[in-house]
Design brief:
- This protein has 441 residues and is of the alpha+beta class.
- 42% of the residues lie in helices and 27% in strands.
- Strands 1, 2, 3, 6, 12 and 13 form a 6-stranded mixed beta sheet that branches. A 5-stranded mixed beta sheet has the order 16-15-14-21-22, with helices on both faces. Strands 8-7-9 form a 3-stranded antiparallel beta sheet.
- The termini are close together.
- 43% of the residues are buried.
Amino acid sequence: MQTTKYQLDAVGFDFGTTNSSVAFLNDESKVQFASFTSLGAQVESFRSVLYLEQLRTGDGPRKSHALTGRAAIERYLQAEEKGRLVQSLKSHLSSRSLTGTGVFGRRYKLEDLIARMLGDLRKHAAKQFDKPIRYAMVGRPVRFVGSETSEDDDFAVSRLRQAFAAAGFERVDFEMEPIAAACAYEAALDHDELILIGDFGGGTSDFSLLRVGPGVRRRGRTPKDLLGNSGVGYAGDTFDARIIRKLVSPALGSNSEARSLNKLLPAVPAWIYGNLERWHYLSFLRTNNVREILKSARIRALEPEKIQALITLIEEDLGYQLHQAVQQVKFELSRSHSAEFRFRDGSMDLRIPVTRREFESWIEDDLQAIEDSIDKLLIASSIHPNVVDRVFLTGGSSFVPAVRRIFETRFGQDRIRSGNEFTSVAHGLALRAAESFRQSS
């Protein structure tokens, strides 16, 4: 059997909306992950964030500087003069209108911003694995965020391919993220099963029905083993956005009014709060136009203190801290029937009680979209829920009780299994990379 050079330097690469992971199958046929330092501990996931700043060297002009992952977050938190912390870049891939962004007077293409993250990950993994990395089996969602057609998904994949090329990869192949998660689950099986995979990322929820197991691996995987897949652009980020809209934005003036020519009108345009809900747009609010709008709104508002709180959030660039607070209350609501949203940073101090029932009412439409996607998959595949052997759920939002109830109702609690919320996809991609070469060699 002839060995290609890629067989020696291939990795599974899960570039996620919130977190990313890199893994490969080592000489002992075990999946090995790249590890990263976070808060003094070693973790197997890399935060998908990019921090851009300008540094002054002596008396000369400022020079642009970029950091990624945890180093980006730490630098952003420590910096007195904030740069730009950019998150959720993957969510923009299907958008033809968003080609890039301007930062400190320089225009950056979206593909180049993503490539900076991918390049740092590739170099880190190559150093840790002590081998060059030229090939990646890359995960992709069934449906990208914002995608309405298959052409939109193809466009997103082409941009992602360009980003990997710019990051130094010589070749990339793509695999559906839920299928990669299925491969991770399959690795521990001693018998064949028909499974439904639910992969809940930051930007998308993806579902696949497929046959897996040692018998499938021995005879070789075929297209017929995949009975069908589906996906929706609703997941962790969407749930976070609902918390912002219903819980946080009212405390920042979204329902406040201002007096104008003896009339009462909304104090602040709704689109500003819309951007506040989406982490990947939040940093774009620090513009002179928004500053002038909010300054005028604060003067006319009946509740100027709320508008000032919004100004503080934007000017002090507290988006990351707000995101962490939302994640925390969502986590607490997954464990308890009530919680308190707490956000204290800079000059802001918010404490707001919330119940699980309230949260579930806010995401009701999103849950219905997930239910519809699963039911359509079962119908299109001509599969009755009773013949599905196991349901394998992965991703942070799979632990939301209302999400789990969707699967418990259809399949029963005893058939549901969970996987590592951050690394199941990368694990499966590493196995798929090795499997792909065995089949093609």
